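Per your request, structure below.
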């Protein structure tokens, strides 16, 4: 086995770290966490949660199977590799709700068996397709009678506050969340919440009281410290009640003023004739059957129509990306109901998730996390080249760089969609032509095949890097 490399985001927790070697994922259990780990392991609760798919699977490895350069831990666990690691600022509203409720239900189940969670990081929840799964086994430790919920603030800022921003104000938090990484500050949220929200006791308890404590800590730090030290003990019943109330409150939240969006109804109102749509689906299916990808990216996935075609043709897992929140929520709901291996995520392709956090490596950008075997980018490139003024050759370079093989659809200027995009602006795209597209693509990759999919001249190209 090659030398193990610690993942960039696994450095804050002294309990243990995550390593990768030969495509496998390992987690160390350091001496400081040994007793807590043994206690939860021996209780059987983790095995039960694992069997019920609430927490990620793990296997305790014998010492002779430990990878090299992993330090001197007490234990080494191996976890299955998830198809793709996503971040909360890439989730839709209902994905964020689903992850929050999963965290709360898991915490309540642990408390019922005498355990708790040491933190409440949203990054500890990942999605395997549409299914949420908790990935940090070392967050589980024995519950101490009377202890406070130490992860309360973190839960609010990384789960609750972004959901409230969406539900109460109709503002998608993705850009704000990505900019701060650690979530939406309670103090900031309290400043913009509507006055009527003060009539809601949950909002007062989880937003305004926290914001007041923040102000007190700044204005009178010694008094705030004494108040914190003398805070009353929290009974286990009260702890469970807080989790239960939060769970019910979040479950009742819905998007505020969910307006019709530009591309949210695209799947049902695009410019394809029935036979053209069928021909396009057949070309996608042929590509996927030939490639048999373990992981396929669907750029501009909309509601997931072609992601489902890819899965039916043999793709093991599909991660879709789109800018339209309404389309993403629809795609996520469908994926959940149909139990598809399809995860839709939010992406501004002109400004994709960057490397950021500590050392600019704690949260990896899209390209650094990309391990796709193939991709489809259908009715996508013109949104960057025409909609965002990105040179055509750079659009092709970026797309081709994400996967070794793929399908890219070129949408010509004569197509109704591009005509609408240019209706209220000057056409400053003289190089946006089919011949130029083909020349740029041929310089970057081999064109395996191409197929015209509409009378307007839309053409899908199969490239191999």
């Amino acid at each position: 086995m090659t030398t193990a490399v610690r993942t960039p985001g696994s450095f804050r927790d002294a309990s243990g770290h995550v390593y990768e070697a030969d495509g496998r994922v390992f987690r160390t259990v350091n001496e400081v966490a040994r007793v807590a780990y043994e206690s939860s392991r021996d209780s059987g609760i983790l095995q039960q949660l694992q069997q019920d798919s609430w927490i990620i699977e793990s296997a305790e490895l014998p010492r002779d199977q430990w990878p090299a350069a992993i330090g001197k831990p007490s234990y080494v666990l191996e976890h299955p590799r998830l198809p793709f690691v996503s971040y909360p600022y890439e989730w839709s509203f209902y994905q964020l709700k689903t992850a929050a409720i999963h965290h709360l239900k898991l915490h309540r189940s642990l408390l019922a068996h005498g355990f708790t969670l040491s933190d409440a990081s949203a990054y500890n929840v990942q999605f395997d397709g549409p299914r949420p799964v908790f990935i940090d086994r070392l967050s589980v430790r024995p519950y101490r009678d009377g202890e406070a919920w130490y992860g309360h603030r973190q839960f609010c800022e990384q789960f609750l506050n972004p959901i409230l921003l969406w539900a109460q104000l109709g503002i998608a938090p993705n850009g704000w969340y990505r900019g701060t990484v650690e979530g939406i500050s309670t103090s900031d949220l309290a400043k913009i919440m509507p006055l009527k929200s003060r009539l809601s006791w949950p909002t007062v308890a989880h937003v305004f009281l926290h914001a007041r404590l923040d102000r007190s800590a700044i204005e009178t730090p010694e008094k705030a410290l004494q108040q914190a030290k003398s805070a009353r003990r929290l009974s286990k019943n009260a702890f469970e009640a807080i989790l239960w109330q939060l769970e019910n409150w979040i479950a009742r939240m819905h998007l505020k003023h969910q307006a019709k969006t530009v591309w949210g109804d695209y799947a049902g109102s695009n410019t394809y004739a029935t036979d053209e749509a069928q021909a396009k689906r057949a070309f996608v299916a042929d590509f996927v059957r030939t490639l048999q990808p373990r992981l396929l990216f669907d750029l501009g996935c909309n509601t997931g129509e072609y992601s489902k075609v890819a899965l039916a043709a043999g793709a093991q897992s599909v991660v879709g990306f789109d800018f339209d929140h309404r389309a993403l929520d629809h795609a996520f709901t469908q994926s959940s109901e149909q139990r598809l291996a399809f995860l839709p995520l939010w992406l501004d392709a002109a400004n994709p998730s960057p490397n950021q956090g500590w050392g600019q490596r704690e949260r990896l950008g899209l390209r650094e996390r990309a391990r796709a075997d193939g991709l489809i980018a259908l009715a996508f490139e013109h949104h960057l080249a025409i909609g965002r003024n990105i040179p055509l050759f750079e659009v092709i370079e970026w797309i081709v760089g994400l996967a070794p093989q793929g399908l890219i659809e070129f949408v010509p200027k004569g197509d109704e969609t591009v005509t609408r995009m240019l209706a209220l602006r000057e056409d400053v795209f003289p190089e946006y032509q089919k011949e130029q597209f083909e020349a740029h693509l041929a310089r970057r990759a081999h064109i395996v095949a191409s197929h015209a999919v509409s009378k307007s001249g839309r053409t899908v190209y199969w490239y191999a890097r």
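The longest strand covers residues 446-452.

Regards,
D.
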